[in-house]
Design a protein that fits this description.
By secondary structure, this protein is mainly α. It contains 7 helices and no strands. 74% of the residues lie in helices and 0% in strands. Helix 4 packs antiparallel against helix 5.
Length: 240
């Protein structure tokens, strides 16, 4: 009788240990597309800042604090070809992230967010890369117009993302996450406003002269948000 109880106790311990091990080894339960999408998101974020620094170092006279990222790919830029290649990779990584979000089994809400991510990648990647702006002292042309249109589409999708996340995922509306989303939206609008004022008013002094700095702070705000979103995507995929 005692031996029988010992065997049963061992079975229960083994069962408990097995359940704990299964819970700890969660990665095999997640679809490959979701993991690839999360990795693509982090590669996009890291690649954007690394290429920004590298391209700027290869462009004599370029001032990242004053000049926007678009000037790195201007028609006469010494790194225009490299910027064009990165713009295509940027779109590919964004599409992979969007596909991973779509495959995370989040229903129609997940599909809407995936479309916004894809639109951002298309507008800021290939869309802007296909239409390089003219040099700083040259008049605006059709390329500059379409560059702004495609970039505007991408930025609109990016700005809408935290708003749509709050609206479409009520299960994520904890006080902490809702407060974070609000901070992303408010800070993003302030930084975008500073960038646009600098772009269209052409100030010669003061803080608004730092157009490139405002743009990069704006992107940093939203790229941190995209990283958080990638973690949320993986977390949701574990629960389905």
């Amino acid at each position: 009788m005692v031996r029988f109880r010992v065997k049963n106790r061992k079975k229960r311990l083994c069962s408990t240990a097995g359940t704990y091990f299964c819970r700890m080894t969660i990665l095999p339960k997640i679809r490959v597309e979701v993991l690839v999408g999360a990795l693509a998101c982090f590669a996009l974020i890291l690649g954007e800042f690394l290429t920004d620094a590298w391209f700027g170092s290869q462009f004599p006279g370029y001032n990242w604090r004053i000049q926007s990222i678009s000037f790195l790919g201007e028609s006469e830029s010494p790194v225009a070809d490299k910027v064009a290649v990165w713009s295509q990779l940027f779109t590919l990584l964004a599409f992979l992230f969007a596909w991973g979000f779509y495959r995370a089994d989040l229903g129609r809400a997940g599909a809407i967010i995936a479309i916004l991510i894809a639109l951002y990648g298309l507008g800021e990647g290939i869309g802007s890369g296909m239409f390089p702006i003219p040099p700083l002292d040259a008049p605006r042309n059709a390329n500059a117009f379409w560059h702004d249109v495609m970039g505007g589409v991408g930025d609109t999708a990016l700005v809408l993302l935290p708003v749509m996340i709050w609206w479409l995922f009520p299960q994520w509306r904890t006080s902490a996450f809702s407060g974070y989303l609000l901070s992303v939206v408010v800070l993003g609008l302030v930084l975008a406003g500073c960038f646009l004022l600098s772009k269209f008013t052409h100030p010669t002094g003061g803080l608004l002269v730092y157009r490139g700095l405002w743009q990069r702070l704006y992107l940093l705000n939203y790229y941190i948000f995209l990283g958080v979103l990638a973690f949320k995507m993986v977390g949701e995929a574990q629960e389905h």
